[in-house]
Amino acid sequence: MYLGIDIGTSGVKAIIMDSAGEVVDQATAALPISRPKPLWSEQDPQDWWRATNEAVAALSADNRKNVAAIGLAGQMHGATLLDTRDVPIRPAILWNDGRSADACLKLERDVADLHQITGNLAMPGFTAPKLVWMRQHEPDAFEKVAKVLLPKDYVRLLMTGEYASDLSDSAGTLWLDVENRDWSETVLSATALTRSQMPGLFEGCDVCGELRTDVANEWKVPANTPVVAGGGDNAAGAIGVGVFGTGDAFLSLGTSGVLFAGDEVYKPNAASGVHTFCHALPGRWHQMAVMLSAASCLDWASTMLGLESPAALIGQTESENLFGQSKSLFLPYLSGERTPHNNPNATGMIFGLNHDSSAVHVGQAVLEGVALGFADGLEVLGASKAINAISVIGGGSKSAYWGRILAAALNRPLVYRKNADVGPALGAARLAQMGKDGQRLPAFKAPAVELEIEPIPGDVAFMSEQHERYRSLYKSTLDLL
Fold it and tell me: How far apart are CA 323 and CA 407, in angstroms?
């Protein structure tokens, strides 16, 4: 058995996978988010540990006692700042926090070859700009920083006592030389930090510690269970659905939205806001187009409209079957946006309402708006021409009606695979199996296909027209922000 743990934004997921690659058990524990000021998004690192323990404890004791290795996945970019006693100095600053826009501009000015080193633009979500912001606005706290860890790696520290990270997650800090898969002394120096304040770097399938005896006893898993480096949530999700090389792609419908394309060579495209990171497998990379709000837009809309859940929102829109009949538009920039705009100040909007507009019309516009945001991302992915089909993962992956809309916007078939809703945790478990068995390349296949949605020509034509209007709406409102 292999335990995979995903430290998400809204919750921690834990799954147990058997040696044949089947998920035999899973559990989730919720996490709170704090937004104390506009553009801010924070979490208490202790909440990650509490939720991890709750999720693991909810798994079958019979399965836990047979765990052979553990893998970790997690939300990327979060700045978890520890003092010399490994105590968090302040709440962690999360991936969807937008306070460090000015710090990004400073980094772009200070490091002339930043794009070449990191493969990315400086964006507020990344970790390094957060530390530049902190040095200016919270200097006393900055001076106490002994270690900077990512969310899953803080949990790893409590599990193993080791300061370690994998290359896929670390690539999202903006401190990594992504092509050479090592920390960049140049970028670290520009943020007044050193290599000694960073964790050790490992490939995702490398064993980098063993479970502490007290944690093993608490979790009722075997003593000295090996823990592998794992991956950032997206890279781990790719491992979970079999996205390894050129032409492989997935769409993640979580709190944020990601269009992920695997690659076997390093091909950055920073100018278009595309993220180019190391994959969780040795010698491989990937590109991502990232939306800061995806399924979270449905959470917002269902709450605003007085509906009990996003599923109810989708159910109502599907029952009315408004697709192709309403030209209302929704800009899904509730937390700003990354690809392709790199604009933390972008805001959401519903456009084109009239006296006949109902909650169902708004729901339909929200589903289409998120899909159109992904279409923006597909256009700037360098690997897009090689993509023939796209796997779908994440909590928003269960609706065939939304799938029809997404397939039309992207003009690609969508493939829904078994266990797609636990993709990152499954990928973490797969990496654990690789580490335990000493494998360097995956010996497993993509999970079984449960549903495939082909784009309908009439839908594609409608969404193409909507896309032109969508882009015009964003451009025409930029000066009003």
Answer: 13
Q: Report helix, strand or coil for 393.
A: strand
C-beta neighbour count of 475 within 10 angstroms = 10
Closest CA to 86 of 177, 163, 188, 24: 163
Q: How many residues does the chain have?
A: 481
CA distances from 474 to 214, 338, 405, 467 (A): 53, 14, 20, 11
In whole angstroms, give the CA distance from residue 150 to residue 127.
9
Residue 256 has a pLDDT of 83
Q: Is 233 a catalytic residue?
A: yes
Cis amide linkage into residue 332, ω under 30° from 0? no
Q: In angstroms, rounded to a whole number, what is the distance separating the alpha carbons of residues 285 and 262?
A: 6
User: Can you tell me the distance from the alpha carbon of 92 to that of 290, in angstroms, rounded to the nearest whole number?
Assistant: 21
> Phi/psi class of residue 209: alpha, beta or left (left: φ > 0; alpha: ψ in -120 to 50)?
left
pLDDT at 187 over 90: yes
Instruction: Give the DSSP letter of residue 229.
Output: -
Amino acid at the residue 103: A
d(Cα 201, Cα 468) in Å, to the nearest integer? 43
Please report the pLDDT score of residue 47 as a whole number: 98
Q: How far apart are CA 191 and CA 129, in angstroms?
A: 8
432's enclosing H/E stretch is: helix 423-437
Q: Please say whether the beta carbons of 382 and 289 come within 8 A.
A: no
| Euclidean distance between CA atoms 151 and 94, whole angstroms | 9
Distance from C-alpha of 94 to C-alpha of 115, rounded to nearest angstrom: 22
| DSSP characters over 366-415 | HHHHHHHHHHHHHHH-TTGGG---EEEESTTTT-HHHHHHHHHHHTS-EE
Q: Which of 97, 233, 263, 299 is catalytic?
A: 233
What angle in degrees, to the nearest 10, is found between the helix axes of 233-241 and 423-437? 80
Locate all alpha helices (DSSP H) within 209-286, ordered by sequence. 213-219, 233-241
Burial of residue 113 (CB within 10 Å: 0-12, 13-18, 19+) is exposed
pLDDT of residue 33 exceeding 90, the answer is yes
Residue 35: which pLDDT band, with cuts at 50, 70 and 90?
very high
DSSP E strand boundaries for 31-152: 42-43, 69-74, 80-82, 92-93, 147-149
List for the chain the helix, strand, coil content (%; round to 5): 40, 20, 40
Which residues are within 8 A (CB) of 49 and not within 5 positions of it... i.e. 6 or more apart? 154, 155, 158
CB 249 within 8 A of CB 375: no
**What type of residue is 5?**
I
pTM: 0.87
Query: Can you tell me whether residue 29 is helix, strand or coil?
Result: strand
Q: Looking at residue 18, what DSSP letter applies?
A: -
Closest to 153 in 3D by CA, of 94, 72, 95, 92:
72
DSSP-assigned beta bridge partners for residue 350: 330
How does DSSP classify residue 103? H
Residue 240: both structure tokens together: 């979970």
